[in-house]
Amino acid sequence: MTMPLLVLTFILLLATGVILLVATRLVRALRHTIELESRIARLQEGVNLLTDTAETGFRQVATEIERLSVRGGQPGPVTPSPPAVARPTAARLRAATRRGKTVKEIAATEQVSEGEVRLRLSLAAAGASGRTRATTEPDRASLRA
User: Fold this and answer.
1) At residue 83, does pLDDT exceed 50?
2) DSSP 3-state of 120
3) Residue 84 lies in a domain
4) Rounded distance, CA 103 to CA 108, Å?
5) What is the mean pLDDT of the chain?
6) Could you tell me which of 10, 38, 47, 77 has the fewest CB atoms within 10 Å of its CB?
7) Distances in Å between the alpha carbon of 27 and those of 15, 24, 101?
8) For 7-33, how does the pLDDT look when each residue is reduced to its tens digit (9 = 90+)?
9) Count of domains observed in the chain
10) Per-residue pLDDT averaged across 59-81, rounded?
């Protein structure tokens, strides 16, 4: 009676060991799979960034080609527009705010982000006052000249 009990105990221990071995390998495979998925996600983010950058570059090249084709495609140096027509961006933005346009409308007109419009307006205001602007929010630090 003890011999069959000993054999059964041995088989039970062997089965438990095999199950533990298989479970360990499955956990390792799962960790490896998770690591690969995170790498693929980072790679996808990089490809998206490269795609966006390439699209922006192509859009700028197309805009430049259109500008040159309007000029007649004549070779030679690009002649700058007269200063009276092409004002600096900061001056155009200030003029637009004086006319009552919102930041969103200005950004759409200038084809820049709203954050850039806000930044340029705050820099123009700081330059006009001779110092940097102090923020009105108490939890943010202000820049002082």
Assistant:
1) no
2) helix
3) no
4) 9
5) 80
6) 77
7) 18, 5, 59
8) 999 999 999 999 999 999 999 999 999
9) 2
10) 74
